[in-house]
Amino acid sequence: MERKMNQTQETAKPSTPDAQVSKASSAALVAAGTLDEKQAAAFQVMLEKGTSNASEWTVFFRGVLKGKEGAKP
Amino acid sequence: MTACKLKKLSLDAFRGATQPVSIEFSGSKRLTLIFGENGCGKSSIVDALVFLCNKSLGWLDEVSEPEKEHLVAINRQRTDLRVQLETEARTWEGRIDGSGQLRKEIIRVTPDNVPPPPSVRILRRRQILNLVDTTAGDRYKALRDYIELPGIEKSEKALTDAKKQAEKEFKSARDVLSGAQQIISRLWKEANSPGESEHSWAASKEAEDTASIGKLSAIYGKLITAHDAIVERENEVSLELGKVTTAQADYDAAVEALKAAEQAAAGQSGDLVDLLERAKSYLDGKPDLEECPICEKPNDATALGAELGKRIQSMKAVRDAQAKLQATKKALDGRLAVYNSALDKHAKAILSLGKLLNSEEWKGQPKPASDEALTVWSDEAAKADERIKSFKDSATTWETQVTGLRTQVTTWKAVLDLQKQIKDALAIIRKNEEEVKTFDKLCALLKVAEETLIAERKKFVTRELASISDEAVRLYALIHPGEDLGGIKFLLKDNAKNSLVLAGDFYTEKGVPPQGIFSESHLDTLGLCVHFALAKKYGGEDSIVILDDVVASVDHDHLGRLIDVLHDEAENFVHVLLTTHYRPWKEKYLFNFAPKEEVHLLDLSDWSLASGIQCFKMLTAIEELRAKKDAKPMDRQAVASKAGILLERLLRFLNEAYGGRLPAKRGREGHSLGELAGGLKKDFLKKVSVEHFGKAKPQATDQAIKRVELLPLIEAIQNWVLRNQVGCHYNEFGALYSNAEIAEFGAATLALAEALVCPVGGDLPTKSGGAYWESKKGALRLHPLVKPD
């Protein structure tokens, strides 16, 4: 019973503010057609870990461009 | 995180605690009020909790290094310092673990293998000002811990940097593209703008087949190079021949000069000079020689040497001529060697040309000389002069042909160079057209991502701030009901990073900065409400909230509502600790104008170095009177005085509740007990009664467990006059009252108090319950609500 309660609490645990904004931003970019689901998931992970290297973002979006033009990112 | 009840906080050698002191909490109450005048140790207690629970130096975090040392009590050592917090679950102890600069990193809390103590959220008056009455930037800093998104902000900055870099590269690629397009345009114009457009012209030029002229140009180029090498070698031969001629002339002149010198020396041979010089050298080395070494006749070596010197001197011209002859001979030999070498190189250059002309590569091309001549040119066994002569014999024909080839090659080279420039420029154009397109798309993607992230961050922060604002407004409205002051909102400032605007509504004006309109006490409660909203949202049940002396001046009614809010909100936290030096707050509880049963009341007495902080349980007026009345021997004066003061408060409460007719008073002059007792007439008091339900929030079906008529209780207090005569003025009439009469006065007052004060919440019935007054918990009702006509 106690274990079950703990699990419920764990499930109900609110995500961090960073994670909330990461998720919302990814969803907004999917809705806008900028990213597909797979790309959005990767984008969200990069946001959540606070990617501070500009080159990593460039590489990611070059991959997105290639994906849009037929090749996989 | 440990949401459990606090039991005891102990301090030793911590700030004002020069002696060990313990603050006992009530296990059943989540609210504690510590009253103490300035300098009694309130902040030391608060800082001790912050020290232990937050591993922080409290307000000392903000002061200079030497001042931080004041964390340790003035007459104690750092190693003595100890703060202990005991809860229902466990006990933690905080100490300073380490030497050197006092900083939070050396705070050690044990045990460290269990959940940490609850976190503390503290509000000091200075923070209220930082939150409310400050600049937008400082306000953001005050709330930064709550609304900051470190990961997102890092990503946002990196995305912005990536976008800027992509824009830079886009511009660079576009510039390169433009440069290459300009080259094509220039070349087209230089070619007199042929064809339909520069693009079609460039494309046709690029497509032209120049392989054959390229190949011929290369072969002819080799021939011209070989020719030029021959010409260069020939020039060298001519140059060296000139030098040989000069050297020969010098030599011939030296031969003639020697002959002339020898004739001048009477036919003596120049060789004799050498012989004589060697003889003199011999004699100079043997000064003691007594006879001639050749003829063996006796002789004087010195005289003989001198004679030889004279003869040598006379023959010097011959000797110089000989030297000159040797030098010119050597120079001539050198020049001849260089000349022969130049001749050899010249012949080899012709040999290279001959081999080229006889090669497969040249096959099919025009022959600039006869086959016989070409055979000699390419024959390695042929002598140099023979090869050179053969070449010179064909020179006229050969030069004409080479000049023609040279012209042809120059023409071809111009064609090839033009094509190369066009090809290079077109390659750049093609590459950069792709780059420009890619960077354009990349910039657009990064821009969308950046803008989306910023928008979502602002949306999140705005939502957070709105939820804080909504809760703050709710609490604020509870404290300031019916006042057209509200609509408080925190807003991110437009076009400025990390700035927070605070706006409120003021009657018809919407969105005005409250600090310009609200009174100081309104700003105080506003800051407090914001703090509570924040603490609830981000700490809640796992945190202790401390309000450290935040109320400076609040009127009676607002203070009452503030207390109600604090009591209601305390349920949301592990504990709410209030410290104050504001005596009206304390007296609200002492005289039961606030639900004192819900709060644990503590009093700090004056601090001294010897005794340190001293903490006592606070007694209400009822508790004090009961204690004094029951004491043996009874303190007559104290009982009379305390009963009188309590009775005054009770009667004033009834007069205020029912609009008693009291004489007008000026200034601070209060009404006497007689005036207060006469304020409400007997006919009215007959209709006043109190119901006790014995539990909070009784239902409509619940019956009162006790019903008390008020008139008999008030009529029982006949001897209120003794209050002045025994409790205040010490006159001789006071001595006429017996102890029994005084005790009876005290008991009657207590009976009235016990009838009017709710035993569940500990407060007087000050709230409107519809048809009656009721206590905060609703466990006591005073009938009726209004004075009947």
The overall pLDDT of chain A, averaged over residues, is 78
Oligomer: heterodimer
- Stretches of chain B where pLDDT is under 50 for at least 5 consecutive residues are none
- Beta fraction of the residues of chain A? under 5%
What's the overall average pLDDT of chain B, rounded? 87
Number of helices of chain B: 23
Give the structural class of chain A.
Answer: mainly alpha
Q: What is the count of DSSP helices of chain A, taking H or I runs of 4+ residues?
A: 4
Count the E strands of chain B: 19
Helix content of chain A: over 70%
Helix content of chain B: 40-55%
**Shape, per Cα inertia axes of chain B:** elongated
| Elements of chain A, N to C (H/E) | HHHH
What's the story with the biggest beta sheet of chain B? Answer: 6 strands, mixed
The major beta sheet of chain A can be summarized as:
none
Euclidean distance between termini CA atoms of chain A? 46 Å
Range of strand content of chain B: 5-15%
How many β-strand stretches of chain A? 0
* General form of chain A: flat
Question: What does this entry look like structurally?
Answer:
The complex is a heterodimer of chains A (73) and B (789). Chain A has 73 residues and is mainly alpha-helical. Helix content of chain A is 73%, strand content 0%. Chain A has helices at 2-12, 17-31, 37-48, 54-68. In chain A, α2 (17-31) runs antiparallel to α3 (37-48). Residues 1-14 of chain A have low confidence and may be disordered. In chain B, a hairpin with a 5-residue loop joins β18 and β19 (780-783). Chain B is 54% helix and 13% strand. Chain B is elongated. In chain B, α18 (636-658) crosses α22 (722-728) and α18 runs parallel beside α23 (739-756). Chain B has 789 residues and is an alpha+beta fold.
Secondary structure blueprint with pairings:
The complex is a heterodimer of chains A (73) and B (789).
Chain A: H1 2-12, H2 17-31, H3 37-48, H4 54-68
Helix pairs in contact in A: 2-3
Chain B: E1 6-12, E2 21-24, E3 31-35, H1 42-54, H2 65-68, E4 82-87, E5 91-96, E6 107-110, E7 119-124, H3 125-131, H4 136-147, H5 150-190, H6 198-207, H7 211-264, H8 270-284, H9 301-314, H10 316-357, H11 371-377, H12 384-393, H13 395-479, E8 485-492, E9 500-506, E10 509-512, H14 520-538, E11 543-548, H15 556-569, E12 575-580, H16 583-590, E13 599-608, E14 612-617, H17 621-630, H18 636-658, H19 673-678, H20 682-685, E15 689-692, E16 706-709, H21 710-715, H22 722-728, H23 739-756, E17 767-768, E18 773-774, E19 780-783
Parallel strand pairs in B: 3-12, 3-13, 7-11, 11-12
Antiparallel strand pairs in B: 1-2, 1-4, 4-5, 5-6, 8-9, 9-10, 13-14, 15-16, 15-19, 17-18, 18-19
